[in-house]
Amino acid sequence: MTHVCLDDFERAARDVLPGEIWDFLAGGSGAEASLTANRTALERIFMIPRMLRDLTGSTTEVEVLGRRTALPMAVAPVAYQRLFHPDGEIAAACAARDAGVPYIICTLSSVPLEKIAAVGGRPWFQLYWLRDEKRSLELVRRAEDAGCEAIVFTVDVPWMGRRLRDMRNGFALPDGVRAANFAAGAAAHRRTQGISAVADHTAREFAPADWESVAAVRARTDLPLVLKGILAVEDARRAVEAGADGIVVSNHGGRQLDGAVPGIEVLGEVAAAVSVGCEVLLDGGIRSGGDILKAVALGASAVLVGRPVMWGLAAAGQDGVQQVLELLAAEFRDVLGLAGCDSVSAARRLSTRVSQYG
Predict the structure, then answer these.
(1) Which intervals hold domain FMN hydroxy acid dehydrogenase (predicted)?
(2) What is the pLDDT of residues 250-300, one digit of tens each?
(3) Which of 36, 119, 229, 284 is the least crowded, having the fewest Cβ atoms under 10 Å away?
(4) Would you call 236 exposed, middle or buried from its count of C-beta atoms within 10 A (0-12, 13-18, 19+)?
(5) Strand partners of residue 48
(6) pLDDT tens for residues 78-101?
(7) Which domain covers residue 218, as residue numbers?
(8) Does a structural domain hold residue 57?
(9) In terms of DSSP bridges, do strands 351-354 and 45-48 run parallel, antiparallel, or are they unpaired?
């Protein structure tokens, strides 16, 4: 079957994944209001294209955190990617490398971070704050030593949100899939009715981060530091004061606080508040090149794409991820030109409107 949009990959992934693993990937927290709102908010945004522009030499390349990338996007951190395909993180990282976009290695990756970074490309490392600060900072050191180019510190998970699908399924990691970056107990594999074993595991391993945690990471590394999970303007400003080089505006894909505002709805005001010296990225609900264009027009340096990359991984391994990234690249080139823009910087000057019909 020829896949012509990301929805095609979603259907293909759902067809091949066991139901409880599909729920782990697709689901959100609570009633999944924020999960649904991420898409609704993006669909309500419409562009005002410009006409009669010179599109000679158009390019989708952009600088993100000081390095050129092929597109204004990175592959979002997603836990336990060997759930979706035996090649897991290695396949996804290889495809990102070949596509010329950063790949963010998750603390909860199912392959050690060093092996993922070794495939090359532009690896970044996503950090969850662990109960033992020394272990947290050791992960930062390992990421540096492995050649990662940035630390993406997720700050919106003091503990895992109540993901009802996983609870109903009594979801637990299967044999052969584990948190490969640190020694952990058996909690994530212990199946109990009405309990998410993954949530139980993170409750045992994670600690709520605070601004002192951010200061400790900032003091530990000279790599660019990005705080992921910021929605409030006040937190964005404080992130800059704390030495953050970037912010990811995100409600964690609707998987943490159910009812948290979609990132796209506050992106513009956050970007305006930290317009000097701090890059702003958007995470949550990106499903097309058109969504990337909307995010850029509203102030994002780049976007993170998570679930669609996992759809490609589940459907066809590295080839599937490559196809997803190629499709996003083709769509973004198309909409960039149709909007009258020859570059990402030109797209930042586009106007948008929010429609009641979206």
Answers:
(1) 1-357
(2) 999 999 999 999 999 999 999 999 988 899 999 999 999 999 999 999 999
(3) 36
(4) buried
(5) 351
(6) 999 999 999 999 999 999 999 999
(7) 6-48+62-351
(8) no
(9) antiparallel
3-class DSSP state of 53: coil
Does residue 101 fall inside a structural domain?
Answer: yes
Q: What is the DSSP string of 259-297?
A: TPPPHHHHHHHHHHHTTTT-EEEEES---SHHHHHHHHH
Q: Let me know if residue 28 belongs to a domain.
A: yes
* Residue 56, domain member (yes or no): no
Rounded to whole angstroms, the Cα distance separating 180 from 175 reads 13
Q: Are 322 and 99 in contact (CB under 8 A)?
A: yes
Residue 319: both structure tokens together: 């080839």
CATH number of the domain encompassing residue 152: 3.20.20.70
261's tokens:
């505002």
Total-model pTM: 0.98
Count of the separate structural domains present in the chain: 1
Using an 8 Å Cβ cutoff, are 287 and 6 in contact? yes
**Please, is 148 exposed, middle or buried when counting C-beta atoms within 10 Å of its C-beta (0-12, 13-18, 19+)?**
buried
Q: What percent of the chain has pLDDT over 90?
A: 96
